[in-house]
Every structure is written in C-alpha cells, then in structure tokens.
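Hello forum,

I keep getting stuck at the same step: I have a sequence, I want structure tokens, and every attempt I make locally crashes halfway through. Rather than fight my setup again tonight, could one of you with a working pipeline run this one for me? It's a single chain of 216 residues.
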Amino acid sequence: MFTGIIEELGAVKRAVQHGNTIKLSIKASKILKDIQLGDSISVNGVCLTVTDFHSDEFSADVMPETFKSTSLSSVKEQTKVNLERAMAANGRFGGHFVTGHVDGTGQIIKKTASENAIYIEISVPASLSHLLLMKGSIAIDGTSLTIFGVTDHSVTVSVIPHTAKETVLGLKSIGDQVNIEFDMLAKYLYSFMNKEQKEVSQNNGISENFLKEHGF
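Reply #2:
Ran it on my machine without issues. Output:
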C-alpha cells in the first residue's frame, strides 16, 4: 500500500529486457536507507519487489503482465522514475490509498500553465471513465492528484510547482505515456453496485438477455 506522495526521483541504471520481461536496476538514495529484500517499491506507480540492492541502487523484475499493461515497457537507461516506499504504519498518511496496481495507461494530450499551476489533460480508456469523479483522487505515475476535469475520454489534473519539480510529471511532454491508477474506493464501490444490480436482476428473473429478447 502506498500514499502517492513521491519520495524521490530515481534514474534507471540498467534495463535488461528478455522477451516481455525486464530486469531493472534503479539508482536511488533516500529510499535505500532502510531497504530490505522483498520490500515493495512503487516505480512510476507500479508496485515492484526488491530482488537485490546496493548502496546506491536496487533491482526489481518486471513480469509479462506488468510489461504489457504499464509504461515500464518503454523505460531506458537514464529514464527518471518516481519512487515511493510502502506506507509505514506509524507514519502520516498523505495523498490517498494507492495500491501500485496500475489500471491502464494514458497519454498527455495537453499541458496548460495557469499562474502557479500546470493543468495536465490525459487520455483515459473510455471503458474506465466511469471511475472518474470531479475533485476525486487519481494516481498518475504513482503521484496522488486531484481531478479537476472529466470527459468521456480524458481527465485533467493540476500540478503545483513542487510536484512538477519533485516528480516525473514536470519532465513529461505532450504525447508521453503515463500509468493510471483509479481511486480504490471508487473501484470497489462500482464493483459492489454492479454485482448487486446483477443479483437483483437474476432474482427477479430479468437478465440482460431477457431484456434484449423483448425489445429493450
């Protein structure tokens, strides 16, 4: 479990690809102070397991499913990445609940400066747009952000100067890919309500096929 409050910017030292898997070695400093084998580290919003570490770097494996569904498939040497350790039980909880299980990727389609804020519009799969809520939470490349605009195909977030400086969002341009994780509470609520509706329909003898067969 993570909070979406990025601790530091790391840099990919090595990215060794074998088929749809990658062995990543990432340079870091702050997050290495209490690192242990098997620890969970969020890398651009993707929860990875520490498989090896040294004084200035750690390694993690990217499995095929992660390779196919996140932007980690495109990282190269020197690529900057957001890093966050798993949430400590005795620490302050900022941001929002972030699992590190990316729901999909999007592309930056617009960046607009407005006084001290940068508004970033990002494409989202239409099939997932129902999980977006104005003033709700979303994680972009692992960064906890507030939603300020929603369409059927995009979401707009606002980034303050500190966030732009301390995360990869300040380095990304129009056309760049980002990892998206929708709010966990929204996903659970939607799943629960959808299941309840299906059960009600089944119990009443009314199904989707029944409605189609009768012209609805």
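The chain has two domains: 8-85, 104-190. If your local run keeps crashing, start a new thread with the error log.
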